[in-house]
Design goal:
It contains eleven helices and eight strands. Strands 1-2-4-3-5-6-7-8 form an eight-stranded mixed sheet, sandwiched between helices. α5 packs antiparallel against α7.
């Protein structure tokens, strides 16, 4: 389905009834990265399960030269308004987590719970900001295949690469489905994001922090350190997983979030 949100056609999926859970995808993928979790949780008949494609990814239109995390957070809340959802659990992985932190900063009253997977509250230091700009330029000049070649070694673990080649194939397909302006706009938007570390101590909703044991981008020690600053947060390390922990170890990831959601 598609709907015009903030002057942009945004693609989304909406299944089930019950506690609303909104899944926010990683860069530079799309909402199909959550299909496994949504299908499995739908069987529990307890949740309303929503996912969306960021601007320029999957089936959503691209708009503007920079997709800031605040703009994307506005799209999430606009979709909630369109669907008549007052409060939802937000489940964000990587860039999806950055958008979740932006939602927390601007729309905390709309959040019933948080699942923060393979993400960080801190802003990018100058060297990472420069890397984001380089990714944007590679997207603009060399296209999605070059982005896939660049990103894949960082996104999935050696274990996954050796034991399940289908994950790499799926991730490459999602990257190739993105638009190059969308990739560039999101990469520049991530570089500009605010530091959300100041929000952690004030989080009052139930929170689960997840990280892949072999995440090369968000080391487990870093995820644990920020999880300890969130009152009452649960912290789980997914074994034999890199940055895309839900795709690399789907059964363990699903069991982890399902257990958390049942407590809400």
């Amino acid at each position: 389905m598609k709907v015009a949100l903030n002057n942009t056609q945004i693609a989304y999926s909406d299944h089930g009834i019950g506690l609303p859970v909104i899944f926010l995808h990683a860069f530079p993928l799309n909402r199909t990265m959550w299909d496994g979790e949504i299908a499995a949780l739908l069987d529990e008949q307890r949740y309303r399960l929503v996912s969306l494609d960021w601007r320029g990814f999957g089936e959503s239109d691209v708009a503007g030269e920079i997709s800031t995390m605040d703009v994307l957070a506005g799209d999430v809340v606009a979709l909630m308004d369109h669907l008549g959802i007052e409060q939802a659990v937000l489940c964000g992985l990587s860039m999806g987590g950055y958008v979740t932190f932006a939602c927390l900063r601007h729309y905390a009253q709309r959040i019933a719970g948080l699942i923060l997977a393979d993400t960080r509250p801190a802003a990018d230091p100058p060297d990472r900001q420069a890397n984001r700009e380089e990714v944007a330029r590679i997207a603009e000049t060399q296209g999605t295949t070059a982005i896939a070649d660049l990103q894949l070694p960082r996104l999935i673990s050696d274990y996954t690469r050796q034991h399940d080649s289908s994950v790499e194939t799926h991730v490459r397909q999602m990257i190739n489905a993105a638009t190059t302006p969308g990739i560039a706009a999101a990469s520049r938007g991530m570089a500009q994001r605010a530091d959300s570390s100041d929000l952690l101590a004030g989080i009052s909703c139930p929170t689960l922090v997840i990280v892949g044991q072999q995440d090369a981008l968000i080391p487990p020690f870093e995820a644990q350190a920020y999880a300890e600053l969130i009152p009452g947060a649960q912290f789980v390390v997914i074994p034999n997983a890199g940055h895309l922990s839900n795709l690399e170890q789907p059964d363990i990831f699903l069991a982890t979030i399902s257990s958390f959601l049942r407590t809400l």
